[in-house]
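Practice problem 4.
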């Protein structure tokens, strides 16, 4: 059985890789027939990623005493913020390579 921290790491890695994958897929669909749906894709994507991050925290971060829980929350938020910034950077460069400057 996979340990809790390994499952947390795998879920966060999947969360990180989802942002570039979603934007590449949406970019491909946006050039086709689905333009009305994809006009608001950034808030939709942000909401999906936010709910997924909340689920990861709720399911996989241990629930010790309240002060440790607050510390875990601060560390999780900082880590997800940094991973989100990194995923945005990867997304930007990926889209730039696909679509050009």
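Answer key:
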């Amino acid at each position: 059985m996979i340990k809790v921290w390994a499952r947390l790491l795998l879920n966060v890695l999947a969360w990180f890789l989802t942002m570039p994958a979603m934007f590449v897929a949406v970019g491909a669909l946006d050039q086709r027939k689905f333009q009305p749906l994809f006009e608001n894709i950034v808030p939709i994507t942000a909401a999906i990623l936010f709910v997924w991050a909340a689920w990861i925290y709720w399911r996989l971060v241990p629930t010790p005493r309240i002060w440790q829980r607050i510390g875990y929350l601060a560390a999780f938020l900082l880590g997800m913020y940094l991973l989100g910034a990194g995923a945005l950077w990867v997304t930007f460069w990926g889209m730039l390579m696909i679509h050009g400057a």
